[in-house]
Specification:
mainly alpha; elongated; 202 residues; DNA-binding; Arc Repressor Mutant, subunit A; Tetracycline Repressor, domain 2; homodimer
Chain lengths: 202, 202
DNA sequence: TAAAAGGGGTAACAGCGTTACCGACTGAAA
DNA sequence: TTTCAGTCGGTAACGCTGTTACCCCTTTTA
């Protein structure tokens, strides 16, 4: 009988990387960033801590991998929103998916947007890649503009504003300043106010 | 010659508490949350780590004191905004003071609103006290309502929405997703959009 | 005066990220 | 085929973290 680590080792370096990432993800989702220690990850996957240093260059390198993984999952959550004939309804659904993701994987969200892993800061390239996640809401805003439902303006600027609003609600909710229901109400109010501000006068 | 700690010790327990808090504040402001270690604080003030445990019950007890201090400073920053004949202009000035405080003392801000000190969570009473900081923006919104400049609505709800918007901008700015200038533009756009949404039709 | 009680310093514990050291294994060259 | 170079990884350590058991000393009380 061979351990998961030995199996991955036979399959090559890439498999070991993946196994370590999986173990780290499991620890993160189950217990939060505090459980993300090099020793625990190594012990979970069945190798020594040294392996993590040779493959990722240190804890921060591994955390950056998780950071990217978080944005991938986030992007899938946003990209998976069903399109709607009404572009504004589609945009609102994306907003709700934003909050739903943050509540579903709060530890990921806080690593991605609130820097809760002490020494870690994402590399410029990782940050740029992360920005691409927001192509989904930006294109939704563009559709609203094309349909003449929003008054002439920069799509990225509007999308950023909606992003800020969604992040504001979710961040304060995760920090314990709002209950789930309060946050939900504030979220809807916020969406109504912003969308009405951007909409063309009817 | 006596150390600062010995002087404080003669002046009583309260003075020692204050000296420890001051040392912790200095470390926090200068170097951020990572520098907030029991050993460094004790060494800075000239006592053993044990004192911090007898006076504060542990690191978290001391951090809660800093948390409260942060909200006191924050409240002073918001309360110090000069009143304006136009309630809406006053409200906007409060918003700008919000962001200015966060940028002036980012380490405090992140402890207060983003829980960047790993194990720490404020007590319910501390959280309730913190909420009183927001009496300033709420009363400003009430003035806008009284003056008939805002359409009939709950003042707390509107103030919360503005809080969420300000926090969203500041939080993403501190996380490195917006440059200073980008954040400033987004902040103004956000304020314009929300205030126009809440204003009575002219 | 003697006893009780409490605060504070020392030194230790377990755990953290990281790395020097060294053995083992791989691949290429002779 | 044999030998050598080079890399990968496990062990054990370093210095750091929060925390606490132990003991001394001071102060208060009987």
């Amino acid at each position: 009988m061979s351990s998961a680590y030995e199996q991955a080792q036979q399959a090559g370096q890439g498999a070991v990387r993946a196994a370590i990432c999986d173990a780290a993800i499991e620890l993160l989702v189950a217990e939060g960033p505090a459980a993300l220690t090099v020793r625990r990850i190594a012990s979970a996957v069945g190798c020594s801590t040294k392996v993590i240093y040779t493959l990722f260059g240190g804890k921060d390198g591994l955390v950056e991998e998780l950071w990217r993984e978080g944005f991938t999952r986030f992007g899938q959550a946003l990209g998976g929103v069903r399109r709607d004939a009404d572009p504004v309804a589609y945009l609102e659904a994306i907003g709700r998916a934003y909050r739903a993701y943050a509540l579903a994987e709060p530890h990921y969200y806080r690593i991605m947007f609130e820097g809760v892993v002490p020494g870690f800061e994402p590399s410029p390239t990782a940050r740029q890649d992360a920005r691409e996640t927001f192509a989904v809401p930006v294109s939704a805003v563009e559709e609203c503009l094309k349909a003449g439902l929003f008054a002439e303006a920069d799509a990225v600027e509007i999308a950023d504003t909606l992003w800020i609003a969604a992040h504001g609600v979710v961040s304060l909710e995760l920090a314990g300043f709002f209950t789930h229901d309060e946050a939900e109400r504030r979220f809807e109010k916020m969406a109504d106010a912003l969308i009405s501000a951007y909409s063309t006068p009817t």
